Amino acid sequence: MSFMAAAPLRILHVEDVPADAELAERELRRAGFELDIRRVETREAFLAALLDFSPDLILSDYRLPEFDGMTALLLAKERAPDVPVIITTGSVNEETAVACMKAGAVDYVLKEQLGRLGTAVRSALEAQRLRDERSQAEKDITRLNAELEEALAWQRHVFEGSRDAVFVSDEEARFVAVNGAATELTGYSREELLGMGIPDLHEEPDLAAYRAFHQRILGGEQILSEAPIRKKDGSKVAVEFNNRLVTIGVRRFMHTAGRDVTKRKQLEAQLVQAQKMEAVGRLAGGVAHDFNNLLTVIQGYGELLAKSLEGDPEKRESMGEIVKAAERAAALTRQLLAFSRRQVLEMRVLDLGTVVADLEKMLRRLIGEDVEVVVVTPPKLGRVKADAGQIEQVVLNLAVNARDAMPGGGRLTLELADADLDAPFAAAHDTIPPGRYVLLSIADTGSGMDAETLGHIFEPFFTTKEKGKGTGLGLATVYGIVRQTGGYIAVETVPGAGTAFRIYLPRCAESRTSGTRPSVSSFRGSETVLLAEDEPSVRAFLQTVLERHGYSVLVAENGAAALDVVTRDPRLIHVLLTDLVMPGMNGRELASRVAALRPAIRIVFMSGYAADIVTDLAADGASGFLSKPFSERALAAKLREVLDAPPA
Fold it and tell me: What pLDDT score was predicted for residue 5?
C-alpha cells in the first residue's frame, strides 16, 4: 500500500527530545510517507491537538518528564478511540510492553530499532483501515437490515392490510401468496388457497380461455374484469378484479386484486329498477291525465243520454254498456295513477287493525273456503296516516294474488305489529331507512317466485298469469300506493314455499281521524259557481251539468281568466270549481289568489292526477276534491257537501 499519492499522514508525536523526534520523522519519510507532524510534550497540548489537529496516528514516547505514554494512550482511547497509538521508548521491560498492548497500543518500537517504525506505522494504518471497513460494513448491514425490516413491515401493512383480496399467481396460474382479505372473500384458509388458482373459484371455468387471459397478463397487459366466484360454502359473490404483471428477479407473477361488488351490483340494479319504474310512472300518469279528461266527457254525457232514453229500453241498455265501459276504463286509469303515485290520497290517521278487521269478512268470501285466513293483530298498535280506501285496495290486491298462488288451497296470514328499525333494512326494491313503523305482513303458502320474477313483480303490465287472467297492474298499484303513502314494501319468497309481502308504514303520533262523511239531502242548488277548466269538452260538460242542477255558472278557460272574473265581476261567487293542472296558472295558485280576494269562497279541486302539485288539500284552502272521471251525481253531491258545510 502506498501513501505517496494520498494526503499527508497527520501524526501527533508525544516526544520531549527534539533529536528523537527528527529521527522518527526521517525513518517515516524514508518509508515513503508524506507527513504532517505536530510534536507535543504536555498533557494540555496533547488534548488540544486531539481536537484541532485530528491525527491519523499517534506516536508517544513512554517516558516524559511531565507526561508519559500510558497516560497518552488512555486519553487517546477515551477521546479518539479510532486513532491507532504506537509507543516508542529507549528502554522497556516485557511487562511494560504487555501492559501497553493491553491498554490499546497497536505496537511498541524501541528507539534503537526505529528502522522498524515505517513497517509498524504501515501495519497500524492497514489494521485501522480494516477495522474501519469492518465497522462500516457492520453499520451497512445494520442499516440494510433496518431498511429490509421496514420494507417487510410496509409489505405486510400494504399486503395484509389491504381491504381488497390479493392473489399472487405464478406462471402456472397457481396461487403462491394470498392476503387475509382473500381468505375472507373466498371462505378458504390461506393453506387451502395456496396451490389453487382463480379457475378453482369459478363454478364452470373455461380453462382454455383463462389460460389465454393469464398469458395476456404475463405479457404485460393490465386488465380489469368482473366475474362471480363460488365461495367455499357454495354461495356466490360478484367480484371486480384488477389483474397486472409483477416481475421479481427473473420470475413473472400475476397480481390480482379482487373486490366484492355484490352490494354495489344490487344497488345498481335497484337504481335501474327505480329509474325504470319512475319513467313508466311518468308515462302512465301523463296518459291517465289526458285519458281521464276524455272519460269524464264520455261517462258524463253517457249518463245524461241514458236518462233521456228512459222510453227506449234497447237504446238505454246500449248507452248503459258505454257508461260501464267508461267506468272500467276509469278503474284502469286509477290503477295507473296509483302505480305512478299521482293520485290524490285522502290522508287520515288510521288504526290498521280496524281497517283489516273491517275487511276480514270480505276477504274470507273473496279467498274461498280452501284457503285458511289467519289474522294476527296485537292488542295495542301504533297509528298511521294513510288513505283507508287505498290501504284496503293494497290488502285486497295482495290477497287475490296469494289466492292465485295457492290453487290447491293453503294458508293466508295477515299480521300487524309495530316495528322499530334502528338500521337501514335492504328490501328487494327499496332500502328502508331507520324509523318507527307499523308493519303489515301478508304471507301465503303458495308457489313462491324465482329471482327473475321477483325482479319484475312491481312493473306495470307484468304478469305470470295466463292471457286474459289479469292486467298486470295489481302489484304495481300496491307498490305505488305504499310509496305515495310514505311507506316501503319488502318481499321474501322461496319457490315452492310461499311469499311474504311486508309493508312498512311510518307511525304517527296524531289521534285517529273520523271517517264519517256528512250526508247530502239534495243534489240541487242555486248558488254561483266559478268553473276553471282548460279542456273545452270537459268545461262544456261541467257547465251543462251544473246548470241542470240549478247553479249559475261563470266559465273560465284557464287560471288567468278565472282570476280576471273574480277581480271584475262584483257578483257573489259561492264556490270555485277548478282543475288542478292547467297551463300557466295552475289550480293551486289560482285558489290561493282567489281566496285572498274573497276569503268566504269555497274551493273544490278537480284532477285526473295530482302530479305532486298538491299534497295536503286542506293546507291549500280546498274544501273538497273530485277525482276525474266523476259522475254527474258525484259532482252534485260534492258541491252540496261543500256548500252546506258550516264555515271553518
Answer: 43
